Amino acid sequence: MYVCNCNGIREREVRAAIEAGAARPAEVFRHCDARPQCARCVCEMRDMIEDQAQALRFAAE
Ligand code: FES
Predict the structure, then answer these.
(1) Using the 8-state DSSP alphabet, how is residue 44 labeled?
(2) What confidence tens digit (pLDDT) does each residue in 4-51 have?
(3) What is d(CA 12, CA 35) in angstroms, rounded to the nearest whole number?
(4) Domains in the chain, ordered, with CATH?
């Protein structure tokens, strides 16, 4: 499934970027060698980053 239709960035690529340390959508774009265009995907990227951070917090408890 695509998260960013403008750049063809898939969900698994966003996850890989987050696992590699991307903590902001701009870093996800950088990791994917892409640039934001319409920015409609930014909210979903933020949600995915927050979900991952929350999962790590739970894992650490
Ligand atoms: S959907 Fe990602 S920049 Fe447009």
Answers:
(1) H
(2) 999 999 999 999 999 999 999 999 999 999 999 999 999 999 999 999
(3) 18
(4) 2-60 (1.10.10)
In degrees rounded to 5, what are phi and psi of residue 3?
A: -90, -45
User: In whole angstroms, what is the distance from residue 35 CA to residue 19 CA?
Assistant: 19
Phi, then psi, of 14 in degrees rounded to 5: -65, -45
Which residue's C-alpha comes closest to atom 2 of ligand 1?
A: 4
Pocket of ligand 1 (CB under 6 A): 4-7, 36-41
Q: Can you tell me the distance from the alpha carbon of 42 to that of 36, in angstroms, rounded to the nearest whole number?
A: 8
